UniProtKB/TrEMBL annotation:
Domain of life: Bacteria
Compositional bias ranges of the Basic and acidic residues kind: 264-274
Name of the protein this chain belongs to: HipA-like kinase domain-containing protein
Species of origin: Streptomyces caatingaensis
Domain HipA-like kinase: 14-217
InterPro entries for the chain: HipA_2
Pfam families found in the cross-reference section: HipA_2
Amino acid sequence: MLPEVTATRYVTPLREGGSLPGIVEADDLGTYVMKFTGAGQGRKSLVAEVISGRLARALGLRVPDLVGIRLDPVIGRAESDPEVQGLLKASGGLNLGMDYLPGALGFDPLAFETDAAEAGRVVWFDALVGNVDRSWRNPNLLVWHGALWLIDHGATMIWHHNWPSAPAAAAKPYDASDHVLATFSPDLAGAAAELAPRVTEELLTEVVADVPDEWLDGEPGFDGPDAVRRAYVEVLRDRAAGVGDRITVGERSADKPSQAPEWVRVRLDRKAGK
Ligand SMILES: Nc1ncnc2c1ncn2[C@@H]1O[C@H](COP(=O)(O)OP(=O)(O)OP(=O)(O)O)[C@@H](O)[C@H]1O
Ligand SMILES: [Mg+2]
C-alpha cells in the first residue's frame, strides 16, 4: 500500500513541469511534489509513476519516496492563478506525491559524470518500462547530495493506453539514442544480467499492489482493479526477459541522423572513438 497523507497547504506550482505539478505540505509535515488526478495526463500517468517508481527502487535505483495525497480543493482557495484553481478543483480525492528533494539540481550531462554501470542500469530500466521521457531535452534526473535520482515516470508504459496491443509491447525494441545517459557508455549487458532476473512475477505483483484501486477502477475491458494489475505484471514480466537485447544506442544512419545537439554528438563520437 502506498502510504497516505493529507494536503494541508498548497505552496506553489512548479512551472517547469508540463503537467503543472505543485509543491504541497502535508499533515505528516512532509513537503511533496504533487501530481494531480485532474491534470490533462489523467490518472494513468499516476499509475505509471507508482509502478515504475516502485519498480526502479526495488531494482536499487534512487527514486524519492512516493505517497498518496488526499486533497480537499478548498486549500487552494487563496490561489490566484485560474489554471491552478481549475486543477485543484478537478483533483479532489487521491493524488500522487513525491518527496520533495530540497536543493536538488537538474541533471546536466556536461557538469555531472556517472559511470557505465549506473548509466546501464538506468537505460535498461527505462527500456523495461518504455520510458520516452529521459532524453537530453528533458532528462527527468536530479542530482541530490552528489547522487543521481530518477523522477517523473508519468510517461512510461504507454501500452496501457491501448490494452489490446499490450502483449505485443513486450517484444518492442527501445531506441535509447536520445537518452540523456547514452553518452556515458551504458553497460547494458551488465545491467541486463544483474536486473532482469530480479524482475520476477512475485516482485511485480508486490509493486502493482501499491497502486490505489481508485486509479484502476472502471478500466474498460477489465473485471476490476486486480485484473488490471495482472495485465501490468504480464507485460513487464515478458518484457524483462529480452528487452536487454533490443536496446539501440546512438546507432544513427545517414537517412536517420541524430536529433541531438552538437555537444551531445561530439560526446557520442568521442565515446565511439571517432
Ligand atoms: N522530488 C522532487 N524534488 C525536487 N524537485 C523536483 C522533484 N520532482 C520534480 N521536481 C522538479 O519539478 C520539475 C517538474 O517535475 P516533473 O518532471 O515530475 O513534472 P512533469 O509535469 O511530469 O514534467 P514534464 O514536463 O517532464 O512532463 C522537475 O523537472 C524538477 O525540476
Ligand atoms: Mg519532467
